[in-house]
Amino acid sequence: MNQVCLAVPSEDGMDIYSATQDSNSCQYAASLVIDKPMNYVNITVPRLGGAFGGKGSDSSTVVAATSLAAYLSKRPVRLSFDLSTNIRTFGKRPPYKATYKAGFNKDGKVQVVEIEFISDVGFHEGGCFFTTYTMGYMDMCYFVPNWKVTGRSVMTNKRVMVAVRAPGSVPAALVSESIFEHVSRALNKHPTIVKELNLYQSEQKDLAGHVLVRCTVRELWRRLKDTAEVDARIRQVDAFNQDNMWKKRGITMTTCKYGMCYFGNGHGATVTIFAKDGSVQISQGGVEMGQGLYTKVAQGVAHILGVPLEKIKVRPNQGIISPNNIGSGGSIANESSMQAAIGAAEILKERMRPIREKFPEANWKELCQKSAAGKLDLTARFLNQHQMGSPYVNYHTYCIAVTETEVDILTGESQIRRVDIMADYGESLNPMIDIGQTEGGFVMGLGNFLTEDTLFDSKTGRILTDGTWNYKPPTTKDIPIDWRIHLLPDTPNPSGIRSSKATGEPSIALSVGGLLANKLALESARKDLLGKDDFIPVVAPFTVERAQQSVGLNESILAV
């Protein structure tokens, strides 16, 4: 996750190797600081060990500093940040504070919601984008006839905030799901009952003004509720809580409606066939960050050309071969880069068609050799030009989760006993990768909602939690004990690339269920120990300390 860059001066330019999501912006930044045109700079991005937004715009400053030092010294310069320096120097997910009011009938049908929230964007107004972005996600998967959402940005003495995986849906999920959990508590109903009553249906218009065509959220909810045996498990949780004083369980369901937008220029790809052995090389504009981009790109080209995957090599992102690309973020890079590579492969396939028709019995290697002998150009380039939807979203990814947890009331420590997820990913391009992205997103969200507390010096704005002694990302002990993930079948997405949907960011919002299930367990403890049947206000991350203190235990209860 740390920022790193190597700049190597050469006789005719500058070669830069950067761990960045946005090579085009970094190439431009380097050219500016050394006062050279962009064609003087060749930037290469082999791969990243994770990014999630932190290696977007922030990488440009690292590249600029490294490039300038290399240019002035005429020597290779490598800049690498240790974890503590990285945390102190670069941006974070913006903090939010929200208040809400909700009006509902006795059945739990919510009629009106009013939300006011503020977003801490740091010392520069550039982070105000996140406030607007979050406003459009406040409904998540719930239809309410009357919304009023007011978002405000505040500038503070903190470092400028940046996009972090699913920057709008994550804070919105906490607010939205909390509202419906609060309504449930007021009506003395389980949250699953109230939430199900308020789910969107196809053709309804969401908060951001999009008509939800092919909305599968009710189908996902119905299937998962049945598959995960939610009603029976709610009864089991209630029985466990009646029989146990110092350990309590909670179970809830959470939703995500993630709007996928093809923003920016798009991604380009160049596909080259080497005639002598028939091997294929792909150079494309996306960045591999562990999300399986190279695999999906290779799959697409292999399918079009009809060659085995082992014949294909995906090369690193290079500015001189694949220039002018939008950065890899917002879950668009996999789809867009694959479509660009497919477009180039289709050009080659059509170019080689007369040779194939003339020599129908030729194998792939022979076909390539005969194409070269026929003076065909075996290199093709294609730019996947993005077209935004109306108002701006091209389609929505929907997913539902059931989360069951157990909390130690005396310590506040919790275990995630079981998680069931069902997602509508259209026609998945690679189910193994998509399930892996779902798992990774969910665990990352658990850190956001349960463990990763960030503290700042109130006078200077300096971050105080700058290492693993006091900043706690989730580890292997924090993942669900029992984890079951299902993909909704037979749901092709005509608005997506090859009928697929984005998978990298939607699932992170579902992990708010870990916080909410813990809160239900603690509310059960308050009722049994203190006779207080009330709603615990939501604070994220809902750390061990906050969980333990929220019960309000006193010495008289602990006396033997």
3D architecture notes:
By secondary structure, this protein is α/β, with parallel strands linked by helices. The protein folds into three domains: 4-89, 2-Layer Sandwich (Aldehyde Oxidoreductase, domain 4); 96-261 and 392-551, Aldehyde oxidase/xanthine dehydrogenase, molybdopterin binding domain (Aldehyde Oxidoreductase, domain 4), CATH 3.30.365; 266-385, Aldehyde Oxidoreductase, domain 4. Helix content is 35%, strand content 23%. The chain has 15 helices and 16 strands. The chain has helices spanning 23-33, 57-73, 83-89, 129-135, 169-187, 191-197, 217-227, 230-243, 293-305, 333-358, 364-373, 431-451, 512-530, 544-551, 555-558; strands at 4-10, 13-18, 41-45, 77-80, 96-104, 110-122, 146-155, 247-260, 266-274, 279-284, 312-315, 317-318, 379-385, 395-408, 414-424, 482-487. The strands form four sheets. The chain has a five-stranded mixed beta sheet, with helices on one face. Strands 8-14-15-16 form a four-stranded mixed beta sheet, sandwiched between helices. Strands 11-10-9-13 form a four-stranded mixed beta sheet, covered by helices on one side. α5 crosses α6 (191-197) and α13 runs parallel beside α14. The longest helix has 26 residues, at 333-358. It is globular. The protein starts with a strand and ends with a helix. The model has no long low-confidence stretch (mean pLDDT 94). Pfam families: MoCoBD_1, MoCoBD_2. Residues 3-199 form the Aldehyde oxidase/xanthine dehydrogenase first molybdopterin binding domain. Residues 224-480 form the Aldehyde oxidase/xanthine dehydrogenase second molybdopterin binding domain.
